[in-house]
Design a protein that fits this description.
Elements: H1 6-13, E1 19-20, H2 43-57, E2 62-66, H3 75-84, E3 88-93, H4 112-132, E4 136-140, E5 144-145, H5 153-170, E6 176-180, E7 190-191, H6 196-204, E8 210-215, H7 225-234, E9 238-243, H8 260-272, E10 282-285, H9 294-313, H10 317-325, H11 329-340, H12 345-354, H13 361-368, H14 370-377
Parallel strand pairs: 1-2, 2-3, 3-4, 4-6, 6-8, 8-9, 9-10
Antiparallel strand pairs: 5-7
Helix pairs in contact: 2-9, 4-5, 7-8, 8-9, 10-11
The protein binds D-allose and zinc ion (2 copies).
Length: about 400
C-alpha cells in the first residue's frame, strides 16, 4: 500500500472545501427538475445536510449561500445554527439572472435604474456578509447578447467596471469580491465576462480585494485549464475555484467524475503555485445533483478533491525538475503519471480512521439512516430548488 508522508498528511489535514447550499436543493435541466425525497425546505435544512458532509469527511467546514435563494429574516440565527452543527457560513453569491428587469443586462445595463437595482442587490449581499461573517462576495453575471450588433460590447465593459467599482468600494476591510467568468450561457453570441482575461482585467482595475473565480466547467472544450490556474496564481489573482466536471458544457457534475486526470493536473498546478491551503485561494464546489442523492453526491465530491490533492502532493518535484532541466520529455511525463496512477484510497482510509473518521465516508453515511430520516421528515412544504 502506498503510504503518505507526515508532510503530505499535514497538508491534507488543512484542506477545506466549501459546499454550495444549492447543491442540496432540487435542480435539473431545462427539460425537467426531478425531486429527491428529503430535499431541504429552507436554508436551515440545507445547512444541516451540508454539516453531514463535514461530519463524515472533515473536509467541508463551510457552506456558500445564494441570495435570494437563502434569504432569511435573521442571519444571526442562521449563523448560530451553522455553528451549532460545526460549520460556518461562507461565500455569498449574488443573483442577477432571475429578475425580469435583467433580461438585457444588470451590472452592464444601459438603463441606469436597472443598473442601480443590480448594484443595490450587491450592497444587500455585502450587508448579509457582515451578518453571516462571510468574507467573499461571488459575482457571476448572466449578461451578454444573442446576436451580433445587439449590444455595444465596449460600452458594457465600461459600465461593468463602474458597477464593480461601486460594489468594491462598499466592501469591508476583510471582505473580497470574486468575479466568475463563463464563456457562454445564458447568452450565446457574446458574454460580458467570458474568460479569465476579462475577469482579470476587470478585477485588476479594482484593487487587491478583487480576485478571479475559476469555475472548472466554464471553458471551451479542450481548454488547458491548469495553464489558467498557473497564470492566475502567478499573478496573485486566483481568488477561488468552483469545482465541478463536465462532459459537454456547464454540466455541473461531480468534480473529478468526468475527467479525473484534468482534476489532478489542476491540483498539481495549485500545489506548484502555492495555492494549496492558501487563504487567498478558496476551494468551493459548484455542482447540482439532478438525479442522485445530494448529501452522498457532495461526500463523493469532496473525497474526489482530497484524493486528487493527495496524488498531486505525491509528485516527486525534485525528479520532475531534474527531468525538465535535462529535457527528458518522457522522463518528466513519467514522474507526473506515476503520481497520477497511484491509488491513495487505502492510505486515506487508514488515515481517516486514525483521526476518528470513518474509513469509508460514503458507506458510513449510507448506514447512518440520515437519508431515510430526512425523506420521512421533510414531507410537505416546498422543497428548495435551483431558482426557488
Ligand atoms: C453559473 O453558471 C455559475 O457557475 C455560478 O457560479 C453558479 O452556478 C450560480 O451562481 C449558482 O448560484
Ligand atoms: Zn460557478
Ligand atoms: Zn456554472
Amino acid at each position: 500500500m502506498t503510504t503518505l508522508s507526515p508532510e503530505i498528511l499535514t497538508q491534507l489535514a488543512g484542506q477545506g472545501i466549501e459546499l454550495p447550499s444549492w447543491a442540496f436543493g432540487n435542480s435539473g435541466t431545462r427539460f425537467r427538475v426531478f425531486a429527491t425525497p428529503g430535499t431541504p425546505r429552507d436554508p436551515f435544512e440545507k445547512i444541516a445536510d451540508a454539516a453531514q458532509v463535514n461530519r463524515y469527511t472533515a473536509l467541508a467546514p463551510s457552506v456558500a449561500l445564494h441570495i435570494p435563494w437563502d434569504k432569511v429574516d435573521d442571519y444571526a440565527t442562521l449563523r448560530a445554527h451553522a455553528e451549532d452543527l460545526g460549520v460556518e457560513l461562507g461565500t455569498v453569491n449574488s443573483n442577477t439572472f432571475q429578475d425580469e428587469d435583467y433580461k438585457f443586462g444588470a451590472l452592464t445595463h444601459h438603463d441606469e435604474s436597472i443598473r442601480r437595482k443590480a448594484i443595490d442587490h450587491h450592497f444587500e449581499c455585502i450587508d448579509i456578509m457582515h451578518a453571516t461573517g462571510s468574507r467573499d462576495l461571488k459575482i457571476w453575471l448572466a449578461e451578454g447578447s444573442n446576436y451580433p450588433g445587439q449590444n455595444d460590447m465596449r460600452a458594457r465593459q465600461d459600465r461593468l467596471q463602474d458597477s464593480l467599482q461601486q460594489i468594491y468600494a462598499r466592501l469591508g476591510d476583510a471582505q473580497r469580491l470574486v468575479l466568475e467568468y463563463k464563456f457562454f450561457e445564458p447568452s450565446f453570441y457574446h458574454t460580458d465576462v467570458p474568460d479569465w482575461g476579462t475577469s482579470y482585467a476587470q478585477v485588476a482595475a479594482l484593487g487587491d480585494k478583487a480576485m478571479v473565480c475559476l469555475d472548472t466547467g466554464h471553458h471551451a472544450p479542450g481548454t488547458n485549464i491548469e495553464f489558467i490556474v498557473m497564470q492566475l496564481l502567478r499573478l496573485g489573482k486566483l481568488g477561488s475555484f468552483d469545482f465541478n466536471s463536465r462532459f459537454y458544457a456547464d454540466d455541473d457534475l461531480i468534480v473529478g467524475a468526468a475527467d479525473p486526470f484534468q482534476l489532478f493536473r489542476i491540483l498539481f498546478e495549485v500545489v506548484r503555485g502555492g495555492g494549496l491551503n492558501n487563504p487567498d485561494v478558496a476551494f468551493m464546489l459548484d455542482q447540482c445533483h439532478n438525479i442522485e442523492d445530494k448529501v452522498p453526491g457532495q461526500i463523493r465530491s469532496v473525497l474526489n478533491v482530497q484524493e486528487m490533492t493527495a496524488r498531486a502532493l505525491l509528485v516527486d518535484r525534485a525528479a520532475l525538475d531534474a527531468a525538465q532541466q535535462a529535457n527528458d520529455v518522457l522522463g518528466a511525463n513519467a514522474v507526473l503519471m506515476d503520481a497520477f496512477y497511484t491509488d491513495v484510497r487505502p492510505a486515506l482510509a487508514e488515515w481517516r480512521v486514525s483521526r476518528g473518521l470513518p474509513a469509508d465516508p460514503m458507506a458510513a453515511y449510507a448506514a447512518s439512516g440520515y437519508q431515510q430520516q430526512i425523506a420521512a421528515d421533510r414531507v410537505g412544504g416546498t422543497q428548495a430548488g435551483w431558482g426557488a
